[in-house]
Design a protein that fits this description.
alpha+beta; 3-stranded antiparallel β-sheet; 10 helices; 2 domains; about 30% helix; Transferase(Phosphotransferase), domain 1; 11 strands; Phosphorylase Kinase, domain 1
Length: about 300
């Protein structure tokens, strides 16, 4: 596959002129402001497009030979362009290339990441969890259909739009093309990785994705991830807290995603078709009831998200 075919927009690249031109063009077209996020992925800045005042986010990532395609296009950029029309994925606007870094320009909106939301709210109700989780499952499924596996699905990589409650999947820096093979490389978050990676250093794209979704759903309804150590991941023994009064349907879905044997684990289609996601059966109200749309918006508005 030629990744240049995935990039119909005009990319600004230092290969067109003097080294460093990419950053000059970035600063000519965008007013780059304060840092709004940082981590192993790089640094994210708030910025504004000078031509029309559009608020954007600019992610600076140091170049690494492993992150470039055969066409010298950053893999993260190529993957984002391939899924750019998926509604639940953060939108790529442009990218700039310099000698030692590349800059990804993305949409920015008033948001909060799911990690912060869960940290503030505690365990989410099943009703709210189902709404958020359903959006994400649909997004991930569309990405897979377009040939992209994210490989780092976690609460920190999910933004919730404060105005609409819609989710956006961000950070494709650990992603890859979906191939009919066993993967033997992984750059995602270890506590979200499956037993087959921990024990054998290998996994398939769908089995990894479903396991990560199971970790995420447990995190939503219980308030924290289920496993911390490699031993806990390998044994996959789930603890259910009685005070949460979780329904059997949601526990069944989580257990199906977190089956240690990948051959017996649920498929992504089976996750989408699970009775809990279809709204069948009783959903417990629990002590941690879902906030109303107004209170949800108010809660989200209490702090700003990463983008």
């Amino acid at each position: 596959m030629k990744f240049r075919d995935l990039l119909p927009f005009s990319c600004r690249s230092s290969s067109l002129g003097t080294v460093g031109r990419g950053k000059k063009e970035l600063n000519a077209l965008y007013e780059v402001k304060d840092v709004i996020g940082s981590g192993g992925f790089g640094v994210v800045y708030a910025a504004k497009r000078k031509s029309d005042g559009l608020e954007v986010a600019v992610k600076e990532v140091s170049k690494d030979i492993d992150t470039l395609t055969n066409d010298n296009v950053p893999l993260e950029v190529a993957l984002m362009q391939q899924v750019n029309d998926v509604p639940g994925v953060i939108k790529l606007i442009d990218y700039f290339d310099t000698a030692d870094s590349f800059y990804i320009v993305m949409e920015r909106f008033n948001s909060k990441d799911l990690f912060d939301f869960i940290s503030e709210q505690g365990p989410l109700s099943e009703a709210l969890s189902r709404d958020l989780f359903s959006q994400l499952v649909n997004t991930v499924s569309e990405c897979h259909k377009k040939g992209v596996v994210h490989r780092d699905i976690k609460d920190e990589n999910i933004l919730i739009d404060i105005k609409t409650g819609k989710t956006k999947l961000i950070d494709f820096g650990s992603g890859a093309l979906i191939e009919n093979r066993v993967y033997q490389e992984f750059k995602g978050t270890r506590v979200y990785s499956p037993p087959e990676w921990i024990n054998c250093g290998a996994y398939t794209a769908e089995a990894l994705t479903v396991w990560s979704l199971g970790i995420l759903l447990y995190d939503m309804v219980c308030g924290d991830i289920p496993f911390e150590s490699d031993h806990e991941i390998s044994t996959a023994r789930l603890v259910w807290f009685k005070q949460l009064s979780l329904s059997n349907h949601v526990k069944d879905l989580i257990s199906g995603c977190l089956t240690p044997d990948p051959a017996k684990r649920m498929t992504l289609d089976e996750v989408q078709d699970h009775p809990w996601l279809r709204g069948e059966g009783n959903v417990q109200k629990s002590l941690y009831s879902s906030p109303s749309p107004n209170s949800l918006s108010s809660s989200l508005s209490s702090s700003q998200g990463s983008l």
